[in-house]
Automatic annotation (TrEMBL), chain A:
GO molecular function: metal ion binding; RNA binding; RNA-DNA hybrid ribonuclease activity
Enzyme class: hydrolase
Keywords: Endonuclease, Hydrolase, Metal-binding, Nuclease
Keyword Nuclease (UniProt): yes
Function: Endonuclease that specifically degrades the RNA of RNA-DNA hybrids.
Residue intervals of the RNase H type-2 domain: 37-287
Reactions accelerated catalytically: Endonucleolytic cleavage to 5'-phosphomonoester
Protein name: Ribonuclease
Co-factor remark: Manganese or magnesium. Binds 1 divalent metal ion per monomer in the absence of substrate. May bind a second metal ion after substrate binding.
Lineage summary: Eukaryota, Fungi, Dikarya, Ascomycota, Saccharomycotina
Enzyme Commission code: 3.1.26.4
Amino acids binding a divalent metal cation: D43, E44, D179
Annotated GO CC locations: ribonuclease H2 complex
Family: Belongs to the RNase HII family. Eukaryotic subfamily.
From TrEMBL, chain B:
One annotated Gene Ontology cellular component of this protein: ribonuclease H2 complex
One Pfam match: RNase_H2_suC
Superkingdom of this protein's organism: Eukaryota
Family matches, as Gene3D superfamilies: 2.40.128.680
Record-given protein name: Uncharacterized protein
GO BP of this protein: RNA catabolic process
Length: 335, 133
């Protein structure tokens, strides 16, 4: 599958979370790896949709290369890396293509080809795709105190990618820039405690502010989109369109409505069952959509925020009120 | 027989289909009643298992609507299990299929309960055998 980047092939290798680590670029070779300060940018793609993996990417480059990306300086190679959401699909594919494709388009000007080679020689990356299956199962553990929520999954993934770059690749990391959707301060503190010798900047919109985060943003977005497109090809007919995976997208709604099955619901390889959108089909309107009503222990306890607080649920249990789903001994275990 | 004497249901062994056996996997959830045609005709059961199949600490893994379920087999020594169905006003017990595999599953995060439930079941079987012998 040489028409796909290695990041995508790696994600296609299983229905679980997978990590791909690129080779260390030529500008940071073995001889000067410990003396070349690098900066790292981290961003994600696909946090909100109901379909596909959530892909995290950590891109890095020598600190001295920073001026070559989107700075407007004389050294700027003018590739146009930016927040991936601001770029078109075609532009994103083009930019990531410069990094993963073995050969450069010979029709490009010599100057452009040299710029692309310079880019390849300076940028390395690691990506982790947290699969839909793992997102779902992590968020659906029981009892609720065991739930591995999306923020924790995201933070752990980011820290593991940094560990890979620092310990496995032995990079001399000078500064890590991270884009976050949650509160930056507490996340930054968490990272600094885990890696006390590294400098972090956690910020909202970091993908627009720091060029290396823009690179990570593009790698994550293209990898996620290409992966989902391949899954669509493997598991679904060509004419079926999953849409963006957001509940506001008519194609997504159409897919969910027309393809729901009685027991499974939808293909677990690319569907996140932990999203509330699925409840409409699998728990609230079983008759309408022809799905089997399945009640879990959580449904007999309480719902919403209280479920996540663990402690409250125990006192809320009244086994005698319920018929059949739990035995008394089941409750004793939780107590 | 007096009116207040309870009538015991009879057991119908003629309903047993000896051409097939069944794997029984007890899952920690409750469903509304499923008609036999839906049970026998579903083609979705294979999709409960990831490809390739997985184990955790030697225990079987399946996924149902995003939940990871981990299970272990229950071996009933010197016992044979059957799948039964009730019918008629006297609730005749129809013995339908011989159980080839019996497994108990729990949600990921709650697998410690497997041991407790297994012990309870084996204790129940032993107690029943003692009463019946």
């Amino acid at each position: 599958m040489d028409h796909l980047p290695d990041t995508v092939n790696k994600l296609l290798s299983s229905s679980h979370t997978e990590t791909y680590v690129s080779h260390i670029p030529a500008a940071i070779n073995e001889e000067n790896i410990s003396t070349t300060p690098v900066i790292v940018g981290v961003d994600e793609a696909g946090r909100g949709p109901i379909f596909g993996s959530m892909v995290y990417s950590a891109a890095y480059m020598p600190e001295t290369f920073e001026n070559c990306l989107n700075t407007g300086d004389a050294e700027d190679l003018k590739f146009g890396f930016d927040d991936s959401k601001k770029l078109t699909d075609v532009k994103r594919d083009e930019l990531f293509g410069y990094l993963w494709r073995q050969t450069t388009d010979e029709n490009l000007s010599e100057e452009k080809q040299q710029s692309i080679e310079k880019l390849k020689e300076n940028i390395g990356y690691v990506i982790t795709g947290i699969s839909a299956r793992d997102i779902s199962s992590g968020m659906s553990k029981y009892p609720p105190t065991e739930i591995y929520n999306l923020n924790e999954q995201a933070h752990d993934t980011t820290m593991e990618m940094i560990r890979i770059l620092k310990e496995d690749n032995k990079l001399n990391i000078k500064h890590v820039f991270i884009d976050t959707v949650g509160p930056p301060a507490s996340y930054q503190k968490k990272l600094e405690m885990k890696f006390p010798d590294l400098k972090f900047t956690v910020s909202k919109k970091a993908d627009s502010i720091y060029p290396i985060v823009s690179v990570a943003s593009v790698i994550a977005k293209v990898t996620r989109d290409m992966h989902l497109k391949e899954l669509n090809k493997i598991f679904l007919r060509e004419d079926i369109n999953l849409g963006s995976g957001y509940p506001s997208d008519p194609n997504t709604v159409k897919y969910l409505k027309e393809n729901v099955t009685s027991l499974i619901g939808w293909n677990p390889v690319f569907t996140r069952f932990s999203w509330n959108t699925t409840n409409n089909y699998l728990t609230e309107n079983n008759e309408k959509y022809g799905t089997l009503e399945i009640k879990w222990e959580d449904d007999f306890i309480t719902t919403g925020r209280k479920r996540k607080n663990g402690g409250d649920i125990v006192s809320a249990m009244k086994p005698s009120m319920y018929d059949g789903v739990l035995t008394a001994s089941s409750f004793y275990d939780i107590n | 027989m007096s009116d207040d004497e309870q009538q015991l249901p009879c057991v119908n062994l003629k309903a047993l289909n000896s051409s097939y056996t069944i794997d029984v996997k007890m899952l920690p959830c409750k469903t509304s009643s499923i008609s036999p045609d839906k049970v026998y005709k579903t083609t979705e059961l294979d999709q409960l298992y990831p490809e390739p199949k997985e184990t955790t600490d030697g225990k079987e893994v399946l996924y149902l609507r995003g939940r990871k379920l981990i299970g272990e087999s229950i071996v009933l020594e010197n016992q044979t299990a059957y799948l039964c169905n009730k019918s008629g006003s006297n609730e005749t017990i129809n013995v339908e299929l011989k159980v080839d595999f019996l497994g108990n599953f729990e949600r990921e995060g709650n697998t410690s309960r497997l041991t407790n439930e297994k012990e309870n079941l084996l204790e129940y079987v032993e107690l029943t055998n003692n009463i019946m012998s």
